[in-house]
Amino acid sequence: MTPQPPTSQCPTVRLVLAISLDGRLAPPQGGAAQLGGAGDRRALEQALAWADACLIGAGTLRAHQCTCLIRNPQLLEQRLQEGRPEQPAAVVVSRSLGFSRTWQFFDQPLQRWLLAPAPMHQGFDRWFPLAPTWPERLQALGAAGIQRLVLLGGAQLTADLLAADCVDALQLTVVPQLLGGPFSWLPLTDSPLPASLVQPGAWQSDGVEDLGHGEWLLRYQRIR
User: Fold this and answer.
1) What is the model's pTM?
2) Residue 71 pairs with which residues in a beta bridge?
3) Residues 6+ apart with CB under 8 A from 170
4) Per DSSP, what are the bridge partners of residue 150?
5) CB 3.0–4.6 Å: which of 18, 135, 184, 196 could bond 173 by disulfide?
6) Which is it for the CA torsion 88, 16, 18, 185, positive or negative?
7) Buried (b) or exposed (e) across 148-169, using 16+ Cβ within 10 A?
8) What pLDDT, in 10s, does the model give residues 51-88?
9) Distance, CA of 203 to CA of 48 (rounded, Å)
10) Taking the CA of residue 174 as centre, how many other CA atoms within 13 Å lie in the half-sphere pointing to its CB?
11) Count of Cβ atoms closer than 10 Å to residue 120 Cβ
């Protein structure tokens, strides 16, 4: 079945990741890699300040047990002046409810939303049913007031949204490390991406920024 592009009701989705020189998210043994330095942190917080919500896969949340917060006082004040909460909402995508209330995530000062087959009655402020397709799920978030969405991974969630052609922008920080191992920022599978995504002209550079200490920020826009 040909992926259906998102409609105008869907939020704009920006993928934000720090990756190694060999395109890895995690070390060979798995777990959190803690990639990126101060420059990447600034770029991440600027993306979060732009966003109404961030989208996180359950596996990523289990690995870190927390999500990223804006710490920069100017960015926090900017959001308040715009009439928005200090932190974007965190939307967790999961097919099961295996979350521990002892995680730091459940004490962080933000709205916690759950996109899952069934609600979790404690710990989350809002539940969205896991609709069959990503355009439908994004439309539900759009109807809830989310216009700008930062996708924070992990790899399978990223692959699923790309397979549905629902990613509008890439913000990739390339970090001067080699990690090796199987944990690429896209899963290493035989399943091809949609032809519309891999053809020449599908993506356009939106700028390159030197973040210092050998880190480079690459931005690309999806051309539809």
Assistant:
1) 0.93
2) none
3) 14, 15, 203, 218, 219, 220
4) 14, 54
5) 18
6) positive
7) ebbbbbbbbbbbebbbbbbbbb
8) 999 999 999 999 889 999 999 999 999 999 999 999 99
9) 22
10) 11
11) 17
pLDDT per position as a tens digit, 129-185 = 999 999 999 999 999 999 999 999 889 999 999 999 999 999 999 999 999 999 999
Joined tokens for residue 155:
């790899």
Which neighbouring-strand residues pair with 33?
A: none
pLDDT of 206: 97
- Residue 11 in contact with residue 141, Cβ under 8 Å? yes
Contacts of 107 (CB under 8 A, 6+ apart): none
The 10s digit of each residue's pLDDT in 189-201 is 888 889 999 999 9
Structure tokens at 215: 């880190």
Cα–Cα distance between 96 and 179 in angstroms, integer? 30
Residue ranges of the alpha helices (H) in 114-185?
Answer: 134-143, 155-163
Residue 49 tokens read as 């300040």
